[in-house]
Amino acid sequence: MGSLVSRRPDTRSSAAALVLTAAILLLAAYSALRPSSTPPGMPNHVRVQLQLDTGGSGAVLEAEGEQEQVQAVLEAARAEGSEGDASMLRQQQAVEQQLQEVEESGARQQQQQQQGAATQQQEVKQQQQQQGAATQQQEVKQQQQQQEPSKQQAGAGAPQRWAVLSKPPVGQAKSAAQRSAEFAHFVSQCYYTADPFACLSRQADVEPGPGQFRFPHFMVVGFQKCATTSLFHHLSGHPQIQNPGNKEPEFYTRTCAYNAMRCMKMDQRDYLREILSFKEAGKKNFTVAGFEGSTHYVLEGRWLAAQLHDLFPWLKIVVSMREPISQAIAMIFHNIEHNRTPPCYTENNNKIYKCVLEDLDYESNYARAMRPWLKHFPLEQVHMVQYENITSGEGMAPALRGIKRFLGIKPALPDDDLGLYNFRHQRKHKQGWRMTRAQYLDLVAKARRNAQDVAALVRQGGWADADGWVENWEKAWQQNLDESCEPEQDGICMIKVT
Ligand SMILES: Nc1ncnc2c1ncn2[C@@H]1O[C@H](COP(=O)(O)OS(=O)(=O)O)[C@@H](OP(=O)(O)O)[C@H]1O
Predict the structure, then answer these.
(1) Which range has the worst mean pLDDT, 46-50, 437-441, 451-455?
(2) Of ligand 1's atoms, which has the minimum distance to the CA of residue 232?
(3) How far is the CA of 391 from the centre of ligand 1 (A)?
(4) Stretch 152-180: mean pLDDT, rounded?
(5) What is the per-residue pLDDT for 351?
(6) Is 145 among the domain residues?
(7) In ligand 1, which atom is closest to the CA atom of 247?
(8) 353 C-alpha to center of ligand 1: Å?
(9) Which residue's alpha carbon is at the smallest distance from atom 9 of ligand 1?
(10) What's the whole-number mean pLDDT along residues 42-49?
(11) Residue of minimum CA distance from atom 7 in ligand 1
C-alpha cells in the first residue's frame, strides 16, 4: 500500500474547492479507464499533486496511494472548501472539457478491449497518448497563466495552476510536450516562492523540453575593456537570447554584498525581473537563454565562482581577453575619465607605465583571475575568447560562431559582425601612450608571462588555438616596437592599443 500525504494550507477558498472537484472527477474518469484486473507492475496506485495558487499563497495538495484512499483525501478537502464564483466556473468548464476528452478516449479504449483487439501494449500506448493530450492542455493553460503574471502577483482573481494528475510513469519516458510544460511551469513559479534563488537551483532536477534553456543560462563575466559591451549587444540581438535589462548590474558584488547565497529575497526578485527579464523569458516558455554581463565578476572569482556554481550549477561562463598592456591602458584611462585617478598615475612623463606595471600583476593578470572559475566550473561550461579575434580579422566570424555554439544557440545568427560599442581612447588617443622603449620592453616581458599562462589555460580548455592566441599578442607588441618606438633603449614610444 502506498503512502498518503496531504498538505492543505489554503483549501478553504473557492478556487481550491473547484480544483478539488475537478481532480476528483478526473480521478473517477481515470479509474474508469483502468482494466478491471490491474496487470502486474501497474499497481492500483495514483499520485495527485495540485498547486492551488489562490491569493498567491502557493498552497499545494498532494495525495499518493491506493486510488480509493486518494479519492477520500480529495473528497475531505473538497468538503472544507466553499462554492466557486463566476470566474472559477469558467475554469471548471475548461476542466470538464478536458475530462470529457479523457472519457471519450476511455470509451474508445473499452470498445477495443471488448473486441479483443487491445493488447496490453496498446493499452499502455493509449495511456501515454492520453497523458500527452492532457499535458498539451496543461501547457496551453500554463501559457495563459504566464501571460497574466501581474494578476497572479496581485492575488486578485488569480488564475489557478491546477493539476498535475498522472499515474506514475510505467517505465516510459515523458513526451517532449510534457517535459516542456513541466519545466516552464517549474521555473515560472520560482518567482513567486519565498526563496526564488533556492527554487531556481532545484531546476537542475527538472529536465527541460526541446529548445528550452535553464534560467539563467549564461553570464559574460569579463574582462573589463575587452569588448564585452559589444558582445553583450551582439548576443542580445540573437532570437534565442533574452535581452537583459542592462549591462553591468554587478548584482552579486554590489547588491548582495559579496554573498550571493544570502541575497535578500526582494532583491532576488528585482534581479530576476529587472536584469534577467525573467517574465519575458517565461512568456517565451524559456525557449530563450537568460543572461547578464558584469565585467567585475571575473575578478571576484575567489568567492563568486563557488557561490554561482552552487546556485546555478548549469551556468555557462563567457570571458573575453585583450592584449594585457592594451587592456590595462584602456582600463586606466576609463578610470581617469570617471574621476578615479589611480595613485600610480602621478609622474608627468612616465605615468602610464607605472600603472600598467602594477595592473599586470592584478586586474590584467588573466590566468590568476580565471583559476577559481576553472576550479569550480567544469571546462565545458567556460568559454574564453580573444578580443583581437572577435573584433577584427579572419578570426572574427569563427570566434563569434564559436561563442554561440558554446551557448547552444544557432551559430550563424544574428550575423558575424560584432559592432562597436563603448569605445573611448581609440578615438581620443590616436597619438598613443608615452613611455620609453625600455619601459615598454619591461611591460612586454611581464605581459608575455601572462600570455603564456593564459595559453596553458586555453590549451587545457580547447577553446581556441593557444599558439595563435600568443602570436596575436606578440604581433601587437612587435608592431609597437617597430612602428611606435624610437630604436634606442631610452627612446620614446607612443604605444597604440589593440
Ligand atoms: N568591434 C570592436 N572593435 C574594436 N574594438 C572594440 C569593438 N567593440 C568594442 N571595442 C573596444 O572595447 C573596449 C570596451 O570594452 P568593454 O565594453 O568591455 O568595456 S567595459 O569594461 O564594459 O567598460 C573599448 O576599447 P577602448 O576604446 O580602448 O577603450 C572599445 O573601443
Answers:
(1) 46-50
(2) 17
(3) 9
(4) 52
(5) 79
(6) yes
(7) 22
(8) 21
(9) 227
(10) 52
(11) 420
Domain-located, residue 190: no
Instruction: Show the cell assigned to 292.
Output: 547578464
Q: Is 449 annotated as a binding residue?
A: no
Average pLDDT over residues 195-207: 96
Is there a contact between 285 and 210 (Cβ–Cβ < 8 Å)? Answer: no
CATH number at residue 398: 3.40.50.300
Residue identifier of the C-alpha nearest atom 11 of ligand 1: 227
Res 89 pLDDT > 90: no
Range(s) of the domain holding residue 74:
14-34+44-108+135-172
| Residue 165, φ and ψ in degrees, nearest 5 | -115, 110
Q: What is the mean pLDDT of the chain?
A: 76
Per-residue pLDDT tens for 375-412? Answer: 999 999 999 999 999 998 888 999 999 999 999 999 98
**Which residue from 422, 495, 496, 498 has its CB within 8 A of the most atoms of ligand 1, so it is best to mutate?**
422
Residue 96 scores a pLDDT above 50: no
pLDDT band at 127 (very low <50, low <70, confident <90, very high): low
Instruction: Tell me, yes or no, whether 309 and 409 share the same domain.
Output: yes
Catalytic residue at 375? no
Atom number, ligand 1, closest to the C-alpha of residue 322:
12
| Pocket lining for ligand 1, CB < 6 angstroms | 224-230, 295, 330, 334, 391, 418-426, 497
pLDDT tens sequence across 292-345 = 999 999 999 999 999 999 999 999 999 999 999 999 999 998 888 888 888 888
Considering the domain architecture, whether residues 277 and 409 belong to the same structural domain is answered as: yes
In a domain, 155, yes or no: yes
- Residue 349 shares a structural domain with residue 286: yes
Q: How far is the CA of 291 from the centre of ligand 1 (A)?
A: 20
Number of domains in the chain: 2
Q: Whose CA is nearest to atom 31 of ligand 1?
A: 423
- Is 448 among the annotated ligand-binding positions? no
- How much is the average pLDDT of 144-166? 34
Residue 380 CA, ligand 1 centroid: distance in Å: 26
Q: Please give the number of the atom of ligand 1 that sits closest to the Cα of 334.
A: 29
Say yes or no to pLDDT of 350 above 80: no
In this structure, of 65-69, 153-157, 190-194, 403-407, the range with the lowest mean pLDDT score is 153-157
> Which residues is 60 bridged to in the sheet?
51
CA of 396 to the centre of ligand 1 (A): 15
Q: Of the residues 141, 225, 279, 351, which is catalytic?
A: 225
Among protein residues, the one whose CA lies closest to atom 19 of ligand 1: 225
Whether 226 and 102 map to the same domain: the answer is: no
